[in-house]
Amino acid sequence: MAVRKGEWKLLKNPIDPAQDTPMDEKDALFLSNIQIHPEELENLAREYPEKVSELLQAYQEWYDRVK
């Protein structure tokens, strides 16, 4: 699952195919600000829990409309 709103991007259960940055269970929700960190190497989910909630809600609203 992925959702983007402006400069924020949230991934659920992300993978790193290049395996440059190991991901573990704490990365189940991976939030990045692609304007500040376009390489998406740092998970900001713990630092911005309100943004995680906002993006999860936006995803759920979209999903409810299209299912």
Write up what this structure looks like.
This protein has 67 residues and is α+β, with helices and mostly antiparallel strands. It has one domain: 2-Layer Sandwich (Arylsulfatase, C-terminal domain). The chain contains one helix and three strands, in the order βββα. The protein has a three-stranded antiparallel sheet with strand order 1-2-3, covered by helices on one side. A hairpin with a 2-residue loop joins β1 and β2. The model has no long low-confidence stretch (mean pLDDT 87).
Helix-strand layout with pairing:
Layout lengths: L1 E4 L2 E5 L16 E5 L15 H18 L1
Antiparallel strand pairs: 1-2, 2-3
Strands of the widest sheet, in order across it, are 1-2-3
H/I helix tally:
1
- Contiguous runs where pLDDT drops below 50 for at least 5 residues: none
Q: Would you identify the CATH architecture?
A: 2-Layer Sandwich
Distance between the termini: 14 Å
How would you classify the helix and strand content by structural class?
Answer: alpha+beta
Mean pLDDT: 87
Which shape, going by the Cα principal axes?
Answer: globular
Number of structural units classed as domains? 1
Major β-sheet annotation: 3 strands, antiparallel
Number of strands: 3
Assembly type? single chain
Strand content: 15-25%
Share in helix: 25-40%
Keywords:
Arylsulfatase, C-terminal domain; 67 residues; single chain; 27% helix; alpha+beta; three-stranded antiparallel beta sheet; 3 strands
